[in-house]
Amino acid sequence: MTEGIVVERAGQKLTVLVPQEGKTYRGIPLGKVRKKEKLFAGDRVEGRIVDSSTFAIEKVKERKNILIRPPIANVDRVVIVSTIKNPPFNNFLLDNLLVVYDHLGLEQTVVFNKVDLLEGEEKEELKRWREIYEKAGYRVIEASAETKEGIEELKELLSKEGISIFAGPSGVGKSSLISAITEVELRTGEVSRKTERGRHTTREVRLIPFGEGFIGDAPGFSRVEALNFMDKEEVRLHFPEFLNYTCKFSDCLHLEEEGCEVREAVKRGEIPCIRYKSYLKMIKEFVPWLAEVPACKEE
After folding, report:
1. What is the pLDDT of residues 71-100, one digit of tens each?
2. Using omega within 30 degrees of 0 as the cis cutoff, is the peptide bond preceding 70 cis?
């Protein structure tokens, strides 16, 4: 049996890469695979090379995960792309994406793209947000597909073994970044002047070989709601800055419970109010005491 990886799925058409040959084949599922399995880009498969263009898929190896958006299997890391302008930054959307992808077990990197467009106060805003997310424990990269800022750092990250995907709202330049990193020209959509949102341009799902790994050319989540993926009680576990504190009760939701160290950290300014507000919004809760915190009144 020969091992391969599904590197593209377009409708029912499958493309399999055989790494030891560096060659791709049309993938044809046989037997139980055809009857019982739905194959995804990223699937590790075993089978036979039938001829110069055909790979018969006889077995799908066990998956470590399957993402529905994008529909890719065995994903290792996600690059979540935002912009300060064009389109304007949405911290609640970014926080939701971080929580959901952490829940799914992916290594995460935050990228602020289009930094070449920023001037004056916009640069200060970027600095503020970068500090917030780095302090929380995330890796943050400033990038520009136009000036190539941050591209080498992203290349180093994404050339590691495994499958990487990009996620974030439409119009932030995900496809442009992938093109700048891989030098593979992708379809990109311009940002609508009226809505300042991008148009979806990616249709099929494919993996682009890069270094020791692959980069997914597919739209990741653009909008998510954490409670669609996990119970309310789980959300707190995916805010890394909360995990630096030990509350009196192990099941503390960090609302108004006795002995809540996270609440006290917010009051002391050790946890940014803006991140705590995202948490409250995600779990659909309100706490009156937050309005009395001096740092929170400014936001």
Report:
1. 999 999 999 999 999 999 999 999 999 999
2. yes
Asked whether residue 254 carries a pLDDT value surpassing 90, the answer given is yes
pLDDT digits (tens, 9 = 90+) for 152-174: 999 999 999 999 999 999 999 99
Residue 171, SS3?
Answer: coil
CATH of the domain at 39: 2.40.50.140
DSSP symbol at 245: -
CA distances from 70 to 154, 161, 217 (A): 20, 19, 9
| Cα–Cα distance for residue pair 1/223, rounded to 1 Å | 41
Question: Exposed (0-12), middle (13-18) or buried (19+): which is 101, by Cβ within 10 Å?
Answer: buried
Residue 108 binned pLDDT confidence (cut-offs 50, 70, 90) = very high
Q: 34 with 171, same domain?
A: no
Q: How does DSSP assign 61-80, residue by residue?
A: PPPS-EEETTEEES--EEEE
Same domain, 236 and 163: no
Does residue 191 surpass a pLDDT of 60?
no
Cβ distance 62 to 34 under 8 Å? Answer: no
Averaged pLDDT score across all residues of the chain = 92
Domain presence at residue 223? no
Q: How far apart are CA 133 and CA 123, in angstroms?
A: 16
Best CA proximity match to 168, nearest among 75, 78, 82, 70: 82
Cα torsion at 141, 142, 147, 148 (round to 10°)? 0
Q: What is the pLDDT of residues 211-231, one digit of tens each?
A: 999 999 887 888 889 999 999
* Residue (of 151, 156, 206, 204) closest to 173 by Cα position: 151
Please tell me the total count of domains within the chain: 3
Domain-ending residue, one of 189, 217, 245: 217
Q: Which residues contact 172 (CB under 8 A, 6 or more apart)?
A: 81, 82, 83, 87, 113, 114, 198
The token pair at 120 is 């004056």
